[in-house]
């Protein structure tokens, strides 16, 4: 995806405007990449205000931040005259302008965290994605629902229901295995002793799955059991407080 940081002149005191993806429930975050940005902003205690955006409005509102991309994406933030698209670029910006508390820990290189994000996006999430996609329209706003079904079915070449047929969350067991092992041996967090952006990345995906299918996430959390406990479930219990949507007064677009 092409990403851009437009202008470079915000001061850290200025409120950040966060463009997040709307669903039918007002003020509810649900989309995995937007969750990452929301959790990062909240963890760092950054002052921000959300503009909730329906799928078909993304292009007109923030398309200028992603030139050449016919289907621009959220999250996007605006800080003074500076616009930043893409959750990873946003994280870099927040680490630079709001360094405390850090989400990129000194002992874990940014490159390693980026690799972890790529792993979650390309290896961990796809097996569950087809189970989850048919359940997303049910909680979207009307215009978002129409857009979602039309664009996803065009990309898949079949209906969402057909794409989901026969798929089960058990397909995540193999790609989740290394994370469970890592948590058992090096936890309590994915980056070791402290919460880091790696926890936020995995939690963002699980929040999305949970919004679509709560029972599926309970199955995922219970996949790894040993005499020492359930490492993934125990980790989830430790970090789930990060995934709250702070109530705000303003509405969407
Ligand atoms: N790599 C991007 C991916 C962002 C992304 O795919 N966002 C989804 C919402 S979670 C989106 O805006 N999709 C718009 C569309 O599909 O038209 C990031 O991490 O920011």
Automatic annotation (TrEMBL):
Residues 1-102 form the GST N-terminal domain. GO terms for cellular component: cytoplasm. This is GST N-terminal domain-containing protein. InterPro entries: Glutathione-S-Trfase_C_sf, Glutathione_S-Trfase_N, GST_Omega/HSP26, GST_UstS-like_C, Thioredoxin-like_sf. It comes from the Eukaryota. It comes from Calocera viscosa (strain TUFC12733). It holds the Pfam family GST_N_2. PANTHER family: GLUTATHIONE S-TRANSFERASE OMEGA, PTHR43968. SUPFAM superfamilies: GST C-terminal domain-like, Thioredoxin-like.
